[in-house]
Amino acid sequence: MNMNVPSVYPIELRVNGEKRTVRVRAAETLLNALRDHLGLTGCKPGCENGDCGACTILMEGLPFKSCIMLAVEAEGQQITTIEGLAGSPVQQAFVHKQAFQCGYCTPGFIMNGQGLLDAHPEADEETIRLWLESNICRCTSYEEIHEAVRAAITSKNAGKPATGNEGKEDGVGGYTSHPGSR
To answer: Is 45 left (phi over 0), alpha (psi -120 to 50) or beta?
Structure first.
């Protein structure tokens, strides 16, 4: 019996449009591979059990929590991190809407919002609310986050950059029927 089992394995990841080879342990999470081996620290360790969403990345255009996915499972998949979304409509809307405070959870929310924008470009208020439920923020109201995602969707459908003024129904800076205000 051969006992020379390798302790690390080379895998090829397609991250932000580039092919990158990394050597990972069999049990290493995608979150750790991205942060420790590729220096992509935008995805954050939070709960490290899939509850908070701070580690959210896009894989083949859909949000995944990188803390509960093994790096070897992502081999050959197209991965996008927050670093790969520079200047995206969702990112711009978060800035314009000031949809953050400490910023720790912001990359995860932006990634989730981008996944929503790509999968459901005409998402209604309920769909936005449901998609945002998978992420947690401990220091800000979810209203600004919801408004930022709504602004990105509205601006994409109108074919213009997100300024943060999109989707306002009451004319004074808020939604008259925001699901979180019930």
So the answer is: beta
